[in-house]
């Protein structure tokens, strides 16, 4: 599902990622852990097409997601690729405050030009599955932290992405909501066959994943 070779990221003199390579199979749930500043978020953003690796030609970088080398895509094609293949879940959900839960979930589908009835049907199915249908017409500030994160999960899934990237998804939740969210990832994998790549400081979540990749100073330290 993901095969990346020689990812380098530099900010001026600072080398944040030092020739990182990795392979993640379809339906795998992988965690990326490591000390603050190790480069986890930067790596996730590059794999998720939100950031670009530095000078891919110079470093022979290849980042294959679902068979497509994303380092070769123009910005326009990259946006389309992201919209169709990738879902994101962030620590601070990043729901748009002026829209209802239902509208927030539908946004990626509208960007993909799915018609309203179809998008809303799928959003409602996801909300049912996630147990938040009764909050459909509420705005994000009217929702609890756990509900907000479930809405963000539904938004990440609306276009049926092959892979979901999550950056500290439970970092802002209490332990009960965090545990429920973690269970949800594994249930979603079972139900929809998604691949999950999760950056986390949560040891409990990391220990539940199929594989834990440990980052240290811009490189993978070891694999379990
Ligand atoms: N836009 C940027 N410009 C300059 N330096 C950056 C930029 N983004 C990240 N960095 C630096 O890159 C390094 C890695 O940051 P990154 O956010 O990837 O770490 P992390 O492992 O996710 O840390 P944390 O666990 O604290 O979120 C840090 O030293 C950070 O300051």
UniProtKB/TrEMBL annotation:
Coiled-coil annotated residue ranges, if any: none
Molecular function as annotated in GO: ATP binding; ATP hydrolysis activity; transmembrane transporter activity
Nucleotide-binding found in the keyword field: yes
Keyword line: ATP-binding, Nucleotide-binding, Translocase, Transport
Annotated ABC transporter domain residues: 2-224
Any one of the GO CC terms: membrane protein complex
Signal sequence residues: none
Superkingdom in the source lineage: Bacteria
Family: Belongs to the ABC transporter superfamily. Macrolide exporter (TC 3.A.1.122) family.
PANTHER family given in the database record: ABC TRANSPORTER ATP-BINDING PROTEIN MG467-RELATED (PTHR42798:SF2), LIPOPROTEIN-RELEASING SYSTEM ATP-BINDING PROTEIN LOLD (PTHR42798)
Protein name stated in the entry: ABC transporter ATP-binding protein
Organism, scientific name: Faecalibacter macacae
């Amino acid at each position: 599902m993901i095969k990346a070779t020689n990812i380098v990221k530099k900010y001026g003199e600072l080398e944040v990622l030092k020739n990182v390579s990795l392979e993640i199979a379809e339906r795998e749930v992988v965690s990326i852990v490591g000390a603050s500043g190790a480069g986890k978020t930067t790596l996730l953003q590059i794999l998720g097409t939100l950031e670009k690796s530095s000078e891919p030609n110079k470093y022979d970088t290849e980042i294959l997601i679902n068979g497509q080398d994303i380092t070769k895509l123009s910005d326009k094609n990259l946006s389309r690729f992201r919209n169709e293949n990738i879902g994101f879940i962030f620590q601070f959900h990043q729901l748009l405050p002026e829209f209802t839960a239902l509208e927030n979930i539908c946004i990626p589908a509208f960007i993909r030009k799915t018609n309203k009835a179809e998008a809303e049907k799928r959003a409602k199915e996801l909300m049912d599955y996630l147990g938040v249908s009764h909050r459909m017409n509420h705005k994000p500030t009217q929702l609890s932290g756990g509900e907000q994160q479930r809405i963000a999960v539904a938004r990440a899934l609306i276009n049926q992405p092959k892979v979901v990237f999550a950056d500290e998804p439970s970092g802002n939740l209490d332990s009960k909501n965090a545990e429920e969210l973690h269970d949800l990832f594994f249930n979603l994998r079972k139900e929809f066959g998604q691949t999950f790549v999760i950056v986390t400081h949560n040891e409990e979540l990391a220990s539940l994943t199929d594989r834990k990749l440990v980052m240290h100073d811009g490189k993978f330290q070891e694999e379990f």
